[in-house]
Design a protein that fits this description.
The complex is a heterodimer of chains A (206) and B (120).
Chain A lengths: L19 E5 L4 E5 L5 E4 L4 E6 L3 E7 L4 E5 L15 H19 L8 E6 L8 H17 L4 E6 L4 E7 L4 E7 L3 H16 L6 E3 L2
Parallel strand pairs in A: 2-4, 7-8
Antiparallel strand pairs in A: 1-2, 3-6, 4-9, 5-6, 5-7, 9-10
Helix pairs in contact in A: 1-2
Chain B lengths: L1 E5 L3 H13 L6 E5 L2 H11 L3 E4 L8 H10 L6 E5 L4 H10 L3 E4 L4 H12 L1
Parallel strand pairs in B: 1-2, 1-3, 3-4, 4-5
Helix pairs in contact in B: 2-3
The chains are: A alpha+beta (206), B alpha/beta (120).
Amino acid sequence: MPLHGHRKLPPPLPGFENVHRYWNGEYQAVMAKIKPGEYYVTRSDDVLTTVLGSCVAACIRDPERGVGGMNHFMLPLKGAHHGVVDDALRYGNFAMEHLINDIVKYGGRKQNLEIKVFGGANIGGIGQDVGRTNAEFVCHYLASEGYRVAGKDLGGMWARKIIYFPETGRLLLKKLEAGSDVASQDRSMLDTLTSKPLRGDVELFV
Amino acid sequence: MNVLIVDDSRAMRMIVKKTLRDAGYDDIDIEEAEDGAKGVEKVREFNPDIILSDWNMPNMNGPEFLKAIKDEGYDKPFGFVTTEATSEMRAIADEAGADFLIAKPFTADSFAEVLDKYMG
């Protein structure tokens, strides 16, 4: 049996080279750890994991076409940029669309998608409404787009570790005491969103 | 001025509409279509002065939509509003005859930066 550190991992799909991946002996599969602000899509038996505080993660797959993935995001505070109230909405849509578009790009069909959502906890020290706002956003988004939610665990006062198997749809969830590391992860994400300008670029073809 | 928004996401069509208002374009009529195929029908019915289209859509994607309406004689401004904006996509957009590309997440400022040229 190969040593963990010496196993050569199969390459990820193009565009996901920066996501941290490693061999997980327990599940005998490549595990991808999704950090705040990242997302990941796979067509193989990769296992995806993340730890959520007030952020939310959508776990989405097309069981017929064998492609799935996960994102991990939070909305910026309303009014954090330009005083425009829609900035949070814009960002949330962007985060969901990125994941869904890439699943479609790699063969998935929107009408087949099986969607589960997690997170949105009220974690001390970051503001009571942050988790709730994230949870409400993701539910509203899915309803507005006409997607059925196959599973969810949102809100509460605890952090969550989730392990998702897109190949089978299985999901393991462990509730964790919301320690300072989760709160600090959330704070850092919120600070990043606040300091970075919330806009893509524009190009004129002349 | 008639503006056609083509996007398979209802939420995103709503955000594009609100962003147009935020950018100060009040005196416009807006129609929507949820994919390229429906967009072609809307172009025939609505005769838009400018089209803002998503790239990834079921039935007929953005570049296919642009080609279809150009084949029918549409020659007014057309821009992509898209999540992914690789250099390859930009080249395809330019080659297909698009006038501009706005990458999401956009703001009212990024809309105004591009659209003032056509709608100012």
